[in-house]
Amino acid sequence: MSKNGYIYIITNKYNTTLYIGVTSNLVKRIWEHKNHVVEGFSKTYNLNKLVYYEIMNDIETAINREKFLKGKTKKFKIELIENFNPKWEDLYDSIT
Domains of the chain, with CATH numbers? Predict the structure, then answer.
């Protein structure tokens, strides 16, 4: 049986910078972002607010979806978030 995959979008407290990621463990990965465990873009720009996610049947599908979304415009990504999470609330508590 394959493991679920997740794509997610995180932002900063001002909702100005977006980061799209993929993982097989969404709760653990967002915790890592919130606690600045991993060096990189999200830590540099203090991106730790989960505003969007999708659950896929497997990690390969999630990786393909991540690549698709990364190729889209910021406007497209904002519309995706606003349809899913109109108030741009931090969804972390809802997944734990």
Answer: 5-95 (3.40.1440.10)
